[in-house]
Amino acid sequence: MATTKINFQVDTEVKNQSEAIFSQLGLNLSTALNIFLRQAIRVGGFPFEVRLEQPNSDTVEAIKESEILLQDPAAKRYADVENALKDLNK
DSSP assignment of 30-90, as one string? Predict the structure, then answer.
């Protein structure tokens, strides 16, 4: 099988951390990248889900509610979690 060199730049810390992980798996970086590329070919794309993290509707509503409460001078405020929990448990 013929091989070819690929040169690319990656953050030094990312390289070091990934090499440490792959080493624990008994692989070097080149072998790990070859595995990634073969898996990408096998599945016809990324071999894992690639997406932007989006909050679910409950989280979006909670964020909106907190923004409204922050603007409300009459909203009850707490100095610490313990006091808030005491009020919740009443």
Answer: HHHHHHHHHHHHHHTS-SS--------HHHHHHHHHHHHHHH-TTS---SSHHHHHHHHT-
Q: Are 78 and 84 in contact (CB under 8 A)?
A: yes
* Least confident interval from 21-30, 39-48, 77-86: 77-86
Q: At which residue do the structure tokens 């099988």 appear? A: 1
Give yes or no for a contact between 30 and 41, defined as CB atoms under 8 angstroms apart: no
Q: How far is CA 79 from CA 44, 76, 82, in A?
A: 53, 10, 9
Give per-residue pLDDT as tens, 45-58: 999 998 888 889 99
Its pTM stands at 0.56
